[in-house]
Amino acid sequence: MTPRKKQPTTTPHTVSMADLARELGVSMTTISRALSDHHSIGAATKQRVLKLAKKLNYQPNHLAAALRKGQSRLLGVVVPYIEGKFFPSVIQGIEQAASKAGFSVIVCQSHEDVQIERRNVETLLHAQVAGVLVSLARNTQEFHHFDKVRARGIPLVFFDRIPASEFVNSVVLNDQAGGFAATNHLLEQGCRRIAHLAGPQHLNIYRERQQGYLNALAAHGIEPQEELIIYSDMTQEDGAQAIRQLLMLPNPIDGVFGAGDSVILGALQALKSQGIRVPQDIALAGFSNEGFTAITEPRLTSVDQRCEEMGEAVVRLFLELSTAPEAQFVQRQVVLQPELFIRESSLQVTE
Amino acid sequence: MTPRKKQPTTTPHTVSMADLARELGVSMTTISRALSDHHSIGAATKQRVLKLAKKLNYQPNHLAAALRKGQSRLLGVVVPYIEGKFFPSVIQGIEQAASKAGFSVIVCQSHEDVQIERRNVETLLHAQVAGVLVSLARNTQEFHHFDKVRARGIPLVFFDRIPASEFVNSVVLNDQAGGFAATNHLLEQGCRRIAHLAGPQHLNIYRERQQGYLNALAAHGIEPQEELIIYSDMTQEDGAQAIRQLLMLPNPIDGVFGAGDSVILGALQALKSQGIRVPQDIALAGFSNEGFTAITEPRLTSVDQRCEEMGEAVVRLFLELSTAPEAQFVQRQVVLQPELFIRESSLQVTE
DNA sequence: CCCCGATACACAAACGTTTGTGCCAACACT
DNA sequence: AGTGTTGGCACAAACGTTTGTGTATCGGGG
């Protein structure tokens, strides 16, 4: 009875640096340095190591490296949600730029809940990420959960939805320019009484969009009217509700600029159900350039947010922070320029 | 001159188990076991450890644990894309179930490219994930890049888009039942010549949906017609193109079942631009229950895919595989039942 | 001939956990 | 009193890297 070896159903023992070292009769130091192209290793040795590594299909254990070096090649991202167009596109930009720099990306959703946002940040720290990239939940008004990130000396970058009046690094769209462009466009199309469907004012983006709206009115010498500004959470239903409210005003409106596309979609549906023509009676313009803006009838004019550029910019900022740690103490803000996509919902109002 | 201590601008030295041990005058073993609720540690000691850990704000280094234990608490997900509704929702389900089980989730997009898919798998293995969850890219016809995953003994679960004729664990929707339900519904509404906008046949989901279509026809004693089945990549433009082609047939059609919502959206737009009424002249039904199905006019009937349930099921399957490694050698397939959402695009065709 | 600086590599100590094994005391049982 | 059992803890070796320091050999400049 030949003592047959037990089947290696156990862990297939991934090949480690130690194996390479034994095989080549050199020390692990040499292996490590050869693989990371250290200058103190001869070209010939490097070649031998590389060759053997390929032959044995050596896979570096990044965990061990991360443990030893105290930092991983993982990037953590926290976003409110990943439905719609904006965040997926930004994430796409982040992934692309990150992978170029040799980083992988973890994505977490806060679902607009600061509680979950807190947990997400914890999760990411647990995963020993090298950086944390955040777009805030709607109800985040307090930012202590990010202190831990800074305390660990990990770069922290906010994008799009950033903390108000905090000393942070961030990438944002010039929302004010976007709001201005959209409103200005409506004005140029002949609108004179333009309503604004505004978002929660503690979020920078909605404040800025509204400011753009106000500036555009001012630029055309039009006095803003309080009754024309409707605040809400920007859902589709909110948009319909707002329209019902606006239609009850004595002086009819002739245009609406919404700080989001969903709210404008709701407005459009409410208008159509009342038999009001868009854009002939009331012109519409939204914000975000969501996919469905090209589906509705008429198609919706909207402000595009340069999503992928934003993702790339976020990663660039992260890389700067991580290579120059002293830069932690200066505040950086990158501002991207939006672009207005003009479609039928706002065209040919006059003539 | 008091010799003031140098500012600790250096690494804030995160508190480790060693610190706890020193503070409490016990060994690290005790700390580790107390924290993981090991039975050989006294209740009193556990309390002391837990209390101190909280007080010092001890954060476990999961990297070290993963290194030691040879497995992390990270789950890798590869999907073709994260736009639209389906994948975000599935991911949502995955995240939820995973976080309950103490896992975090990394998401990668293959962008429908098998090359990138390969790289994604590599990335995930580098990140030392505990499991790999995949929905295939459109052009993935060969599966060797997944061998490495199995070789490392890491659970591998496919969902929705799964390899044809491979020995794998998977979670899928009963696409055939979905195709049947949609087509059957059109038939019940009075349609008799129903076209099918089919997808790439090497993808299981599209084959199944088509089979459901054929079965429904057969169940009503209707002979399928080759000319009524149009194959494409299922984009919006493909849908419009297909309609143009179908309208040139001598015998007019009275219904269309599309294997996706985008392709049906294109069809709807093409029909409307030709002045053909939906659903009076031609009824429509799609697949996926995308968000925009409730926006179009008329709203689109569509098959819902139980996205979140799928995500949960995927994680459940992963957990089974990882706790019972011998189960690696049996094939498991979970099948979810779809649900038909009936809207105006298919209603009241007759009478 | 001596010293200096490269060049090329090895030693060994980290990084922060987990875990098999060993030790000791206390207790219960025959 | 001797034997077995159990509870409670410590020792030390892993896991797979990275890296500061040490130490040869060699060539060339003084």
Low-confidence stretches of chain A: 1-12
Helix content of chain A: 40-55%
* Number of strand segments of chain A: 12
Q: For this structure, what is the CATH class of the largest domain in chain A?
A: Alpha Beta
So, the CATH homologous superfamily of the largest domain in chain A? Response regulator
- The oligomeric status of these chains comes to homodimer
- Average pLDDT confidence of chain A is 88
- What separation lies between the terminal Cα atoms of chain A? 100 Å
The domain count of chain A comes to 3
The major beta sheet of chain A can be summarized as:
6 strands, parallel
Name the pair of protein chains with the most residues at their interface, and give those residue counts: A-B, 47 and 47 residues
H and E string of chain A: HHHHEHEHEHEEHEHEHEHEEHEE
Shape of chain A: elongated
Any idea what the radius of gyration of chain A is? 27 Å
The CATH topology of the largest domain in chain A is given as: Rossmann fold
Strand content of chain A: 15-25%
Strand order of the largest sheet of chain A: 2-1-3-4-5-11
What is the annotated CATH architecture of the largest domain in chain A?
A: 3-Layer(aba) Sandwich
With helices defined by DSSP (H or I, 4 residues minimum), what is the helix count of chain A? 12
- Class of secondary structure makeup of chain A: alpha/beta
